[in-house]
Design brief:
The protein is α/β, with parallel strands linked by helices and 255 residues long. The protein has a single domain, classed as Rossmann fold. The protein is 37% helix and 14% strand. It contains 8 helices and 7 strands. Helix 4 links the parallel strand 3 and strand 4. The N and C termini lie far apart (53 Å).
């Protein structure tokens, strides 16, 4: 029989991907450390904000202010990722209303190839003014884009990325509950966290890149989510308020 080697920067957790990609318990797993210096990434988690569906309307204004504080640390290009278009548009409305001096655009639900290229062309090297793009987690701008150097210096990721409830995912959940008792993890939690890792990975694209990532969701401080953080994320700093955010970013950008 033949053999296969499966690899990616975001196969976390490895046993889950081995299961869903058709592997067996006898297959070998190997996790390698990040080739990038952890000091090049300022990773923070604002873990006092709930982004669950029932709290989204209430949290929109607070998240808009956090985005403004995050992007005020250094002039540059930023992307903010949301779990849905509606949540993105709600926060975008708050943000542009409260901070009209900051240039911001939002991803459209359907974009042609030309529109995508135009969207990405706004991420210029060494910009003279801050630019903030609002995008959807798991969408066309959260994976497969390569904005090296100063074209992207920071990202905000809102929520743990749980997929929306669906009949298909309910079937997957039931199947893995029967198989290993981990239906929720396999259908929702792990795929969501994979989207978070993909989006965060847009910031550091080379050994010389430096940048900041802010995770926003109270669940990022829970043990089950912390266990999914890759080794190069273990320096993540909890952020309790905007003053702490400013202090951490000032120290990072000045270093």
């Amino acid at each position: 029989g033949g053999s296969a080697v499966l690899y990616s920067a975001t196969l976390t957790p490895l046993p889950y991907f081995r299961d869903i990609l058709g592997g067996s318990r006898d297959d070998e797993l190997l996790a390698l450390g990040s080739p990038f210096d952890t000091e090049n990434l300022c990773l923070m988690a604002a873990d006092r904000i709930s982004t669950t569906y029932k709290n989204r309307e209430r949290s929109a204004g607070k998240i808009a202010r956090l985005i403004a504080s995050f992007t005020a640390g250094k002039t540059g290009n930023y992307i903010v990722y949301f779990p849905s278009y509606k949540y993105m548009r709600d926060v975008f409305t708050h943000f542009t209303g409260a901070f009209p001096h900051i240039r911001a655009v939002a991803q459209e639900a359907s974009m042609s190839e030309e529109e995508r290229e135009q969207f990405l062309s706004a991420f210029i090297d060494e910009p003279e003014e801050t630019f903030v793009a609002f995008c959807v987690l798991g969408g066309i701008f959260s994976e497969g884009i390569d904005l090296k150097g100063s074209r992207l210096i920071g990202s905000v990721i809102v929520s743990v990325g749980l997929p929306q409830l669906s009949a298909r995912l309910s079937i997957i959940k039931d199947y893995f509950n029967e198989k290993n008792g981990m239906g929720f993890e396999y259908a929702y939690m792990y795929p969501g966290m994979n989207k978070v890792l993909q989006a965060a990975g847009r910031v550091i694209r080379s050994e010389t890149d430096t940048g900041a990532v802010l995770l926003i969701d109270e669940r990022f401080s829970r043990r089950d989510y912390l266990s999914l953080f890759p080794a190069h994320w273990h320096h993540c700093r909890p952020i309790r308020d905007e003053e702490t955010l400013k202090a951490v970013l000032d120290a990072f950008w000045d270093s």
